[in-house]
Amino acid sequence: IRCWSNIPFITMPLSRAHGKSFAHRSELKHAKRIVVKLGSAVVTRGDECGLALGRLASIVEQVSMLQNQGREMMIVTSGAVAFGKQRLRHEILLSQSVRQALHSGQNQLKDMAIPVLEARACAAAGQSGLMALYEAMFTQYSICAAQILVTNLDFHDEQKRRNLNGTLHELLRMNIVPIINTNDAVVPPPEPNSDLQGVNVISVKDNDSLAARLAVEMKTDLLIVLSDVEGLFDSPPGSDDAKLIDIFYPGDQQSVTFGTKSRVGMGGMEAKVKAALWALQGGTSVVIANGTHPKISGHVITDIVEGKKVGTFFSEVKPAGPTVEQQGEMARAGGRTLAALQPEQRAEIIYRLADLLTDQREEILLANKKDLEEAENKGRLAVPLLKRLSLSTSKLNSLAIGLRQIAASSQDSVGRVIRRTRIAKDLDLEQVTVPIGVLLVIFESRPDCLPQVSALAVASGNGLLLKGGKEAAHSNQILHHLTQEALSIHGVKDAVQLVNTREEVEDLCRLDKLIDLIIPRGSSQLVRNIQKSAKGIPVMGHSEGICHVYVDTDASVEKVTRIIRDSKCEYPAACNALETLLIHRDLLRTPLFDQIIDMLRVEQVKIHAGPKFASYLTFSPSEVKSLRTEYGDLECCIEVVDSVQEAVDHIHKYGSSHTDVIITENEKTAEFFLQHVDSACVFWNASTRFSDGYRFGLGAEVGISTSRIHARGPVGIEGLLTTKWLLRGNNHVVSDFSEHGSMKYLHESLPLPQRNTN
Q1: Largest alpha-carbon pair distance within the chain?
Q2: DSSP-based three-state secondary structure for 724
Q3: Highest mean predicted confidence (pLDDT) among 40-44, 148-152, 238-242, 413-417
Q4: What are the φ/ψ torsions at residue 467 (nearest 5 degrees)?
Q5: Dihedral angle, C-alpha 267, 272, 275, 280, nearest 10 °
Q6: Residues 175-202: what's their mean pLDDT?
Q7: Residue 381, Cα to own-chain centre: how many angstroms?
Q8: Do residues 151 and 270 share a domain?
Q9: CATH number, domain at 631?
Q10: H/E element holding 442?
């Protein structure tokens, strides 16, 4: 037997061998039997008198949802004392108000003193009401609840423990949610100090230890401890350097400094950690999280069960590598060192990576072959994604060429002066380019993205977190290894980190203190999900690539089929591939129109008819379901327009502001199109496929942005930089520039330093 404070714990619970807790959060979705412990701060109101009904209703809803999924839910709850205090205060006030009204009138009612209420009396008065409230709430979800009151003494008697165990198992078998609480009405007297003003309450340590005991006794898979803090911090929450601990391992107690207890309860976080570690030792996984935050309490329990990063997860299995939080800190520190290197040194790193891509191509292609074989065997990837996953010698050669372009063009990217102003005599201001900070790039089925983005991050001096899809795990591992080998020549290996595939994208999007910019590269659904999940972190990218080609009446016959074929058929899975072909009405039933249709048929492109196009045909192709469709395959929509203005209007209504093209020999019409189409890339007589960082001469791109701030179109080095202001003075103060001051503002523009154009 071990003792914590005055609470005995039996280290080996009856009839239970040591179990195996879940090693990772992602496994929590398999939890069958779950205990939810509600701390006093969760259940009680902010005024410390009565229950927080809104929070309680939300918790019941989540528990009911999980119960109806086939899980076995149990609740260990506080709240009887607070609920009883509310009732007793009401009764006392009512009694006093009647007596005083008879003697001194209503004016003195405000000055009535409320006597100190004894905790056990409050518990006795509140227990029945608390249970009635739970029953009423669970009834809304067609779930029955049952109350069980226990004391510490019940765990000392073996027969009582057997009886408790049998009762709980029988309730769970009948799909009933047990509501368990300490029988505060008959416990020994409380400690002399109090938690609630005017009320001595039973130490919350009792319910923490009770929840841990029950969890292990009942062979529970998961114990969720809800309190009024986000989880376990390495120092008291609210202190300057306090950091939330994502995963806590046995033996880490020495790295934690515990602060004062919460608003209610005596045990505080230290008691919760001790109880959690004891439950973990017994084979039960534990998560400590905030059950009071209005923005997350409505789904905190379900989020935990779904494996999301909520609160602190207790695990016995330490990962082989650093956590993503540690990786973020390493990337930031490495990025700052990288930015401090000489431009020639950053270029050397990129040149070295380019050489490694060709020197180690056999290893790279072998790893890529494993990914392709696994994807094909599992059948989980569509044909377009398989094409994106595939690497080849020609792709690696093109990558190496692009990386060398980046290295050559990056000589003056960081620290370049873009504005100089003389504010006053001996007071000069400069605006210079600097890295954004730490980038998170999330990409699907595109292992060639890894060296491209890494090179751009190196050139711009940014730290980088990379999150690739598990379908490209082998390819990404070898490419990241080569990237770190190149970085090592100047001691900045940590600047580029590959995030473990176990990390959920939604969880990464919440790391607003570690990440400065998110760049998604993948399906439109991925981009939309990231834009929705990102909290406080800007997202740069495009959710869809709905690119248009408009064929004008003055289009050249020779150019039309070449440009359309290249735009649609050269690489249909690309985001810059043609998806909607707009044809001027006057071209219908002309030889040019027939040539377009014949070419598409030869290339096996499936045609979908837009509403207007279908109205001109007796027997039309399948009518398009939506004019806002990105096919990503050998499919496209054909629609008819009456003029270049109607083509512009159609693009604005159904396009994604990515890339749009006009084919015409009429310069006036072309210029109208170029000036009026509001997209990131607008071309005249050129394929949509030119919308690419490599083809633009940027060397490579981190993606194509359709947003309207910071960067737009293919984003290269320039899009990964921001600026800062440097002011050099000599004992200058603002008061010298006042109306009666001795100095005057000059605001003279100064010439910029000569750029290195080699």
Answers
A1: 106
A2: strand
A3: 413-417
A4: -125, 100
A5: 180
A6: 60
A7: 24
A8: yes
A9: 3.40.309.10
A10: strand 438-443
By the 10 Å C-beta count (0-12 exposed, 13-18 middle, 19+ buried), 159 is classed as exposed
- Residue 668 pLDDT > 90: yes
Q: What pLDDT is stored for residue 502 in this prediction?
A: 66
* pLDDT above 50: residue 9: no
DSSP H helices in 174-242: 205-217
Range of the domain at 561: 548-701
Does residue 423 fall inside a structural domain?
no
Sheet order of strands, 606-609 included: 606-609, 635-641, 578-584, 547-551, 659-663, 681-684
CB 302 within 8 A of CB 34: no
Report the alpha-carbon distance of residue 399 to residue 392 in Å, rounded. Answer: 11
Q: How far apart are CA 408 and CA 638, in angstroms?
A: 42
Q: Name the residue among 186, 81, 197, 201 with its Cα closest to residue 129.
A: 81
Q: What angle do CA 707, 713, 715 make, to 5 degrees?
A: 100
Q: What is the pLDDT of residues 731-755, one digit of tens each?
A: 999 999 998 888 999 999 999 987 6
Identify the residue whose tokens are 């976080």: 269
Question: Which amino acid is it at 529?
Answer: N
Q: Classify 321 as helix, strand or coil.
A: coil
Between 123 and 565, the more confident residue is 565
Is there a domain that residue 706 lies in? no
Residue 503 pLDDT exceeds 60: yes
* pLDDT 10s digits, 589-638: 999 999 999 999 999 999 999 999 999 887 768 889 999 999 988 999 99
Is there a contact between 659 and 676 (Cβ–Cβ < 8 Å)?
no
519-564 tens-digit pLDDT = 988 777 788 888 888 878 999 877 688 999 999 999 999 999 999 9
For 295, other C-beta atoms within 10 Å of its C-beta total 9
Q: For residues 525 and 556, state if they share a domain.
A: no
Tell me if 43 sits within 8 A of 76, measured CB to CB: no
Over residues 357-382, the mean pLDDT reads 90
3 state DSSP class of 688: helix
Indicate the DSSP class of residue 30. Answer: G
Nearest to 474 by CA among 373, 342, 592, 393: 373
CA-wise closest residue to 719 among 451, 449, 351, 457: 457
Q: Which residues pair with 138 in a beta bridge?
A: none
The answer to whether residue 612 is domain-embedded is yes
